[in-house]
Structures are given as C-alpha cells and as structure tokens.
Design brief:
Length: 176
C-alpha cells in the first residue's frame, strides 16, 4: 500500500510518514502501554473498593437477619410455652419490658435453669434469660386477651442502617 503526498502527488517514504517528535514508534508504544496499565490499575482499584463495600453491606444485612431470626424463634418459643400451659397462659402476660430490663444484669448467671415448682414462673424466667443473652438491649411484652396472645420483642439492631431508628421491633400474634 502506498501513501501519496496530497500536495505533490509523490509517494511518501516510511521516514516522511513518521511524526517529527524525535521518538521512534517503539518508544511511543512503550509509553502508551504504561498509561494503559496505570488506567487499568485505577479501574481495578475502584472495582475492588466497590467489592469491599458490597461485602461489608452484606455482612451487616446477614447479622441483622440473624438477630431477626433469633427474635422470631424466641417469640414462637414463648407462644409454644403458653400453648403447653393453656389454663395458665394468662400468667405469661406478666412478662413486660421492666421484667426483661431487670433481667439484663443477671444475663451472665441466669443460664442455669431454676426449678421453683412454678412452671410458668420458671418458663418465663428462663425465656427472659435467653432473650437478654441473645439480643442486645432486648425488651419484651406479652399480652394475652380473648384467647389470643401477642408477643412484642424490641432490640437494638445497630447494623440495620436502613432502619430509621436503631431499635427493631417484632410482633407476633397467635390464637391459643
């Protein structure tokens, strides 16, 4: 393939086609490759930074979901205790937030089940112990009325960045 000079109409030699920068084509190519590598490293760095942010967000969501699962299991546990003691289920309504708050300082020592002879009191105390050990700053309220029970559990979920407040509440209602 021949390239012609526009003004003279003569064929240009390889030397005449090269720009007059004083650099050979091989030298120009090396510099361009270095810039390409730097740009690709910059793009790769931003990609890895985004991946790290995605990983931390996923970890927060996983831990928040774990706490929600624990709260759900605890709510259904107290519901099952009320169903097992239907005639005395109204006594589980004595679980209120002040009882749970009073249990917090005892959370480290309340792991041992105490048998006082009162099944409902033992169940309630053991359940509150599990609650304060499993969820941070937890409180609970149990309401029994007209053959239905409502269990409300509230805890501090610092990882739920999408929530308007750090307290997360779970409410479960079921017929006894």
């Amino acid at each position: 393939m021949r390239i012609l000079d526009f003004n003279t109409g003569r064929a240009l030699s390889g030397r005449a086609m090269a720009p007059r920068t004083g650099m050979t084509p091989a030298a120009r190519q090396r510099g361009f490759s270095l810039i390409e590598v730097l740009v690709s490293l910059l793009v790769l760095g931003f990609g890895l930074l985004g991946l790290a942010l995605l990983q931390t967000t996923a970890l927060k969501a996983t831990q928040s979901a774990n706490q929600r699962t624990i709260a759900t299991n605890l709510a259904y546990e107290v519901m099952d205790m009320m169903r097992a003691n239907r005639l005395l289920s109204f006594r589980y309504a004595y679980i209120d937030p002040s009882d749970v708050v009073a249990m917090r300082p005892l959370a480290d020592t309340c792991d041992v089940a105490v048998d006082s002879g009162d099944v409902v009191a033992d169940d309630s105390n053991n359940w509150m112990c599990h609650l304060v050990r499993a969820l941070p700053n937890a409180s609970a309220d149990v309401v029994v009325a007209a053959g239905a029970a409502t269990v409300t559990i509230t805890w501090a979920d610092e990882r739920a960045s999408w929530a308007p407040s750090p307290d997360t509440t779970l409410t479960v209602t079921s017929a006894l």
